[in-house]
Design brief:
Length: about 290
């Protein structure tokens, strides 16, 4: 048993996600411990990125506080967390919710799987796009492109809005969509003023014990968003990735064969340096990182 597991052994580990470990903390509370694990293409690497868990935790906390006026979230602010000091910086006490089984993805620019699908078929999530776009272009307006939440070992699947209606009902789906777009638009403007373009992002939502729709999981981190640098004076976007895409590109460049590998030190450093730059620009704070 390693030090992390030992100091948390008083809590019941109820879910081990790709990056986060979720413990039962109290009847209505969960303890989310964000590890230094990295995943790509739905594969979790044994080799870790030191400091990543703390950075993701702080970045999510930052955005959860900033966006509360748009939608309440799972963070419980008012109590200290009873865990070892080396874990506290990557621990979050949250409201236990019933997770809505949809990955709520919003895109303001055309990139990744949406670009590939548009290029091949002019469709994104089954919807025909009539306008002409190049890769990375800003879309007319941000679009909501849901996917299913796959179990560990399988892949998320892009779905249409109609399919999302079938899965969670139109009423709830429409609320998730409108809150997602509001959250994205707010954060897009906020980050752009500070030199980061949030090209796209993914949210998760849950229903709390009082039946409220709330924002859960992580929010606007470099693990769940696509970040590009934006030169405000020159009004120029550099499409180099300051998010997990850098790591995906590395894996593609070495023809990675979906097996465990030791990650080169320079790649691990580069991932952290990129994550830190995004964090610093957005939060204007590098204390303790
Ligand atoms: N407030 C919450 N209530 C219930 N489940 C949550 C809450 N916040 C996050 N989760 C769940 O915890 C897990 C987070 O771990 P993560 O490593 O991100 O998992 P995944 O492999 O699904 O991406 C996700 O399955 C997420 O849905
Ligand atoms: Mg996740």
């Amino acid at each position: 048993m390693n030090a992390l597991d030992e100091s948390l052994s008083k809590y019941n580990l109820i879910h081990k996600g790709k990056v986060r470990n979720i413990y039962d903390y109290a009847s209505d509370r969960l303890l989310i411990v964000t590890t230094d694990r990295i995943s790509a293409f739905d594969f979790v690497f044994e080799d870790e990125i030191p400091g990543k868990g703390e950075l993701l935790t702080k970045m999510s906390e930052f955005w959860f506080r900033k966006t509360r006026h748009i939608l309440d979230n799972h963070i419980i602010e008012d109590s200290s967390i009873n865990v070892a000091s080396d874990i506290v910086d990557r621990s979050m006490l949250v409201k236990k919710t019933e997770v809505i089984p949809i990955e709520a993805i919003v895109r303001g620019h055309l990139s990744g799987s949406a670009w590939k699908s548009y290029k091949d078929s002019k469709e994104i999530n089954g919807k025909l796009i009539n306008k002409e776009y190049q890769q990375y272009d800003m879309l007319n307006q941000p679009i909501f492109t849901p996917s299913t939440k796959a179990r560990i070992g399988s892949k998320d699947e892009n779905i249409s809005i109609e399919k999302m209606y079938d899965i969670i009902g139109k009423n709830l789906a429409d609320r998730v969509i409108s809150k997602s777009l509001l959250l994205y638009e707010y954060a897009y403007d906020y980050a752009k003023k500070r030199g980061i373009i949030i090209a796209d992002t993914k949210f998760e939502f849950g229903i709390d014990s009082e039946d409220n729709l709330i924002l859960i999981d992580e929010v606007f981190t470099p693990d769940c968003s696509r970040f590009w640098l934006y030169d405000i004076d020159k009004n120029h976007i550099d499409h180099n990735s300051f998010d997990k895409q850098f790591f995906r590109d590395y894996l593609l460049s070495i023809n990675w064969d979906s097996q465990q590998i030791v990650l080169p030190a320079n790649i691990k450093n580069e991932i952290m340096e990129r994550y830190k730059l995004a964090y610093k620009l957005i939060t204007d704070n590098v204390d303790g990182l």
